[in-house]
Amino acid sequence: QLKEVDGVIIVKLTGQVRISTQNEFKDILDNLVMESGEKNVVINMEDIEFMNSVGLGIIIDTCKKFKEKNGKMVLSNLVPDILNLFEVTELDKFIEIFKTEGEAISTIME
C-alpha cells in the first residue's frame, strides 16, 4: 500500500521476507527508489511478520540508494522480533526506526 501524507511517501509492507519472497521484496523497494528516490519515505513494517538476513540487506541497500538520490528512508512500526534483529545487528544505528508512522512523518519533515 502506498499513500502520501504532507509530501512524505508512506509504504505499508505486509507478509514475510524469506527466500521465497525476497526477490519480490527487493523489486518493490527498487521500484520505490526509481519512482520516489528524491523524496522522504516511511516504510511502515507493522505487518511484516518475519525477515531473514537478506531482507535486512535489502533494507540497508535501499536506504543507501535513497541517500544517493538526496531522499531519505526511515522505518516505522516494527514488530518486536524484527526490531530486535535490527538492534542485535546494530543496523538501528544506520537507519532511523520510529515506533509509529506519525512519529516518523513528523521527524522526517523537520
What structural class do the secondary elements suggest? alpha/beta
The proportion of residues forming helix, as a percent range, comes to 40-55%
Strand-residue fraction? 25-35%
Order of helices and strands: EEHEHEHEH
Which stretches are poorly predicted, pLDDT < 50 over at least 5 residues? Answer: none
Task: Please give the radius of gyration in angstroms.
Answer: 13 Å
The whole-number mean of residue pLDDT values reads 93
Give me the count of strands: 5
Total of DSSP H or I helical runs spanning 4+ residues: 4
Q: State the separation between the terminal residues, measured CA to CA.
A: 24 Å
CA-based shape: globular
Describe the protein's architecture and organization:
By secondary structure, the chain is an alpha/beta fold. It is built from 4 helices and 5 strands; from the N terminus they run ββαβαβαβα. Strands 1-2-3-4-5 form a 5-stranded mixed beta sheet. The chain starts with a strand and ends with a helix. 26% of the residues are buried. The mean pLDDT is 93.
Write the layout of secondary structure elements.
Layout: E1 2-5, E2 8-17, H1 22-36, E3 40-51, H2 53-68, E4 72-76, H3 80-88, E5 97-98, H4 101-108
Parallel strand pairs: 2-3, 3-4, 4-5
Antiparallel strand pairs: 1-2
Helix pairs in contact: 1-2
Which features characterize this protein?
30% strand, 4 helices, globular, 110 residues, alpha/beta, single chain
Quick recap:
By secondary structure, this protein is an alpha/beta fold. The chain has helices spanning 22-36, 53-68, 80-88, 101-108, and strands spanning 2-5, 8-17, 40-51, 72-76, 97-98.
